[in-house]
Design goal:
It is built from ten helices and eight strands. The chain has helices at residues 7-15, 26-29, 49-52, 55-60, 62-78, 83-94, 108-112, 169-181, 200-206, 233-245; strands spanning 18-23, 97-102, 118-119, 122-129, 156-160, 184-188, 210-214, 227-229. The protein folds into two domains: 1-32 and 81-121 and 167-250, 3-Layer(aba) Sandwich (Rossmann fold), CATH 3.40.50.1220; 34-78 and 124-160, SIR2/SIRT2 'Small Domain'. The relative contact order is 0.20. It is of the alpha/beta class. Helix 1 (7-15) packs across helix 10, helix 6 (83-94) runs parallel beside helix 10 (233-245) and helix 8 (169-181) runs parallel beside helix 9. The two termini are 18 Å apart. Bound molecules: ligand BV8. Ligand BV8 is lined by residues 24-26, 29-30, 35-37, 50, 53, 103, 105, 121, 160-166, 189-191, 193-196, 214-217, 219, 232-234.
């Protein structure tokens, strides 16, 4: 694995003052959480996530959409962070400034020890009211699916950003600012297809940051990256930690 991290990239990372990492579903693939591009399994194989993860789908069939999220919550609860998540949690401690931005809704970065990930697309383990948008932590289980908001009686939904919905204003602004200010931007495990998250690496390029892609497959941004580590993040990120900062994950 010696040659995985080019000397030039090791030097850049060692001297970096502010590293930003954007993660996508690929960073959770090795934890057994299927990515959006992978076909879904079993009962859900017949559905396209991009169709189900929309307010229209929820209005049309709230029970179906709610049950899809219950199934995914189960998956995520039974998943464990992988070495890629742990490497990012370690990296955070080594830098004067480190910003982790994630498109993932599975909360695995927090479970691996990352302190303040910016969750651009929300968190699947949280619930909110479809009517008033307020978070709900407790509700009466009446057997009705989805359950209802204790405040206004509206239907409950997962607290994630659906296609066609705006991203949380503060989170997106914080992410854009970090992308514009960092020395190095790593785009990890994302197909760079979903906007506006996919514009963050471009913001970093325009701000003359050194850009790195970690992905076994090419993406629309691969050709513009300064460095490409075409390896799974569960391998590449611990290698970065070892070869750049001499730290071995326990
Ligand atoms: C919005 C939560 C304003 C829900 C998600 C501009 C142009 C075109 C379209 C648009 C545009 N602006 C807005 C849109 C529409 C849309 C969009 O981008 N569509 C795309 C598909 C063209 N965007 C939106 O709707 C966004 N909202 O812009 O608001 C607005 C307001 C009103 C009206 C219009 C616009 C909201 C987007 C957020 C959607 N919610 N998640 C849920 O999870 O249920 S996004 C969801 O899909 C995931 O969270 C994830 O972010 C995304 C999938 O992307 P990736 O994370 O990259 O995952 P993917 O599966 O695609 O790729 C995995 C990658 O990992 C692959 O490259 C693979 O090679 C790699 N990989 C695999 N294994 C590994 C690995 N890498 C490393 N290691 C491995 N082991």
């Amino acid at each position: 694995m010696k040659d995985l991290i080019p000397d030039e990239l090791r030097k850049v990372l060692r001297n970096a003052q502010h590293i930003v990492v954007l993660t996508g579903a690929g960073t959770s693939a090795e934890s057994g959480v299927p990515t959006f591009r992978e076909a879904q399994t079993g009962l859900w194989a017949q559905y396209d996530p991009q169709e189900l993860a929309t307010p229209q789908a929820f209005r049309r069939n709230p029970k179906l959409v709610w049950e899809w999220y219950i199934w995914r919550r189960e998956l995520v609860t039974n998943a464990e962070p992988n070495p890629g998540h742990f490497a990012l949690a370690e990296m955070e401690k080594l830098l004067p400034k480190f910003t982790l931005i994630t498109q993932n809704v599975d909360g695995l970065h927090q479970r691996a020890g990352s302190l303040t990930p910016i969750e651009l697309h929300g968190n699947i383990m949280q619930t909110k009211c479809f009517e008033d948008g307020e978070t709900v932590t407790e509700w009466a289980e009446t057997g009705e699916v989805p359950p209802r908001c204790p405040r206004c009686g509206g239907l409950l939904r997962p607290d994630v950003v659906w296609f066609g919905e705006s991203l949380p204003f503060m989170a997106l602004n914080q992410a854009i600012r970090a992308a514009r200010q960092c020395d190095v931007f790593l785009s990890v495990g994302t197909s760079a297809l979903v906007q506006p998250a996919a514009s963050l690496p471009v913001e970093a390029m325009q701000a003359k940051a050194v850009t790195v892609e970690v992905n076994p497959q090419a993406t629309p941004l691969t050709q513009y990256m300064d460095f490409v580590l075409a390896r799974p993040s569960g391998t590449a990120l611990p290698e970065l930690l070892k070869q750049v900062w001499g730290i071995e994950l326990s």
